Amino acid sequence: METVIAVLVGVLMASSVYLMLRRNLVRFVLGLALISHTANLLIFSSGGLQARFPPLITPGELVPGPDVANALPQALMLTAIVISFSVFAFLLVLAFRTYQRLETVDPDSMRSAEPMAAGAGVDGSVSGGPQ
Amino acid sequence: MSWLLAAAIVLPLACGILGLLLRPHRAMQQAVSLVAGIAHLGIATSLLVTVWREGILVVQVGGWPAPFGITLVADHLSAAMVLITSVMGAATIVYALCDIDERALVKDFHPPLQALIGAVCGAFLTGDIFNLYVWFEVMLIASLALLISGGRKAQLDGAVRYAALSLVATTLFLSGIGLLYGMTGTLNMADLHLRVQQVENQGLLSVVAILFIVAFGIKAAVFPLFFWLPASYHTPKVAVSAIFAGLLTKVGVYSMIRVFTLIFTHDVGYTHGILLWTAGLTMVTGVLGAASHNELRRILSFHIISQIGYMVLGLALFTPLALVGAVFYILHHIIVKANLFFVAGAAERLSGSSDLKTLGGVYREQPLLAALFFVPAFSLAGFPPLSGFWAKLLVIKASVESQQYWIAAVALAVGLLTMYSMTKIWVNGIWKARPASAEKPPPLSRANRALLLGPIICLAAMTLAIGLWPGPLYDLAERAGHEVMDPSNYVEAVLGRSETAALGAGAGVGE
Q1: Which of A2, A114, A123, A126 to mutate to test the interface with B (most CBs of B within 10 A)?
Q2: Measured distance CA(A81)–CA(B342) in Å, rounded
């Protein structure tokens, strides 16, 4: 089981890096969503993947029985999922607003914050990409 | 007195929510924010005084004992950082009363600002590594809200870059936490300090350490991960830039110091060796970037990067004196850097431009502002007797003592280049006569002028005071530096004496 998850994490990571390296803001945002799932799976598998009992305490006892699963990684994942979901929602809106205002989704042609012509030196020489 | 720790986080967050509810009432919202800022200053001061008198303060949130629940810890470093955060918060709130005066912007400024202050304090006070991640995300959302408020093209462009790299950083951080938890089975930082020593696969520990270096490196804007910073910091309103410049990167540096003194000390030659190279390259690239620009806030943004190098250098040398230097450097730098952004904003408001080509005549028309620029600018460059001189002296002395002569030479050369850059601003922006083409903006009312210059004067006075009487801050930095170098007190305060002894002796898993 751990091998399968490890391969899955690897494939997801590779795809998200591929998506993030594309010159398209929308793909970048999708890549970020994917990479956060990768991190979640990593946490999930780090807790150990065995078939165990749910971590419930039977009535009358103070501690759970011996073979219960570790619930903490799932609690961490849940927190991380909620956070990454809200951040993803924000990013989608940001990407959409950026597209509306700048009329492009290509990060290379967004030069509003760092205009090509204004700076002497660094700005002009770093990239010769199309404007 | 343990409620102080929680209050330092809860008060700003609660006032942020209150601010959201008061959105239609501008004056009330501003008043709440101002009162919250001043109250926070009081809380932070008494927190530092308590820690100074009684030692490390610990709160087990919800009454769960240490390695299981979330722990809030205030040692000297944390308490000092919280105090400096609330000083910056209060200064920014006052400055923003004049700087952010458009009705549409005010209502979106104070709530996220308070949330940001709360999140930064949370990051400084938490003793749980997953909780640190959560505070990082709260900080990210709050700072994004501040960054895009106004929605100009440059802001959106900057925000995309900022959000993208920050999210990659937090994902790497999260992956690092996952792997670390898999190896040690704990998230409490004090507990991690003990458990990592028992990890068999020390090689994997180094891999996780690198993940943390990259994650915090992006947050702290070190070489070669700093590109988001000069792309975004000059785009929002000046008050926003100033608090970002003062606080956000320093949270990254703080986390680096915390993690690389408490958890990853298994192979100092390797991890801290990487940090040493990073520090050197960060100093050099930052200052060269600054030298190549002409817009005030963009120059200052590059200087943040260069100065981060000095702080990371203090951590990388990993001697008690070096860490004292790093802590002193952070505290001095936050005051100076935010103040420089304030001055840049005031120059723009009073003289009509922030570009060195069109700015001018400040010395003739605004002699007070020119003097106020002089103090933080030349403190940053390391002029005696200003605060930056002592900070640089400590870090460079530490590098000479550890016989890292080349990095000491780099630090000195970068100081010289910083001076060149500040002199460039002084000559072109402040001293030279106003260019004929530049128009003079309408004069500000007396009240607005006081709101703009008040925080600048206070922060400049602090810089001068630290420069002339470095003793008290040095004592604080010394305690904080020695405390992080020898985490036994921290661990004992969090976990209690018996468990520490049991685990330290390798007796295995605690209760």
Answers
A1: A114
A2: 38
The domain in which residue A23 lies consists of 2-52+70-108
Residues A79-128 pLDDT 10s: 999 999 999 999 999 999 999 888 888 877 887 777 765 444 443 333 33
Asked if A87 lies within 8 A of B168 by C-beta distance, the reply is: no
Q: Does A97 touch chain B if contact means CB atoms closer than 8 Å?
A: yes
Output the pTM of the full model: 0.91
Lowest mean pLDDT of A35-39, B188-192, B220-224, B437-441, name the range: B437-441
Kindly state the tokens that stand for B237.
Answer: 């309103």
- CATH code at position A47: 1.10.287.3510
Query: CB neighbours of B392 closer than 8 A, spacing ≥ 6?
Result: B310, B329, B382, B411, B415
Note whether B158 contacts A28, CB cutoff 8 Å. no
Q: Are B429 and B301 in contact (CB under 8 A)?
A: no
Total structural domains in chain A? 1
Percent of chain B with pLDDT strictly greater than 70: 97
Q: How much is the average pLDDT of B399-417? A: 92
Query: Who among A47, A83, A97 is closest to B156 (CB)?
Result: A97
B356-373, pLDDT tens digit by residue?
Answer: 888 877 888 888 888 999
Q: Which of B 183-212 lie inside 8 A of A, CB atoms?
A: 187
**Per-residue pLDDT tens for B58-108?**
998 888 887 888 999 999 999 999 999 999 999 999 999 888 877 778 788
What DSSP string runs through B326-380?
A: HHHHHHHHHHHHHHHHHHHHHHHHHHS--BTTT---HHHH-HHHHHHHHHHHHHH
The answer to whether the Cβ–Cβ distance between B156 and A76 falls below 8 Å is no
B442 contacts: CB under 8 Å, gap ≥ 6:
none
- Tens digits of per-residue pLDDT, B147-171? 998 888 888 889 999 999 999 999 9
The arithmetic mean of pLDDT across residues B308-330, rounded, is: 94
- Domain assignment present for residue A78? The answer is yes
In a domain? residue B57? no
Q: Where are the alpha helices (DSSP H) in B264-319?
A: 268-291, 296-317
CA atoms within 13 A on the CB side of B275: 33
What the block records as the tokens of B456 is 């600048």
Cα distances from B45 to residues A29, A113, B36, B150, B237, in angstroms, run: 42, 38, 14, 34, 28
Nearest CA in chain B to A108: B157
Domain boundaries, position B408? 267-468
Contact assignment for B181 to A83 by CB distance below 8 Å: no
Nearest CA to B77 out of B261, B338, B304, B265 is that of: B261
Determine the pLDDT at residue A123: 39
**What is the pLDDT at residue B310?**
94
Domain total for chain B? Answer: 1
Residue B234 belongs to some domain of the structure: no
Amino acid present at B55: G
Partner B contacted by A110 (CB < 8 A):
yes
The overall average pLDDT reported for chain B is 89
In a domain, A61, yes or no: no
In a domain, B79, yes or no: no
Best mutation target among A12, A23, A76 (most B Cβ atoms within 10 Å) is A76
B375 occurs within a structural domain: yes
User: Could you tell me how many CB contacts below 8 A there are between chain A and chain B?
Assistant: 117
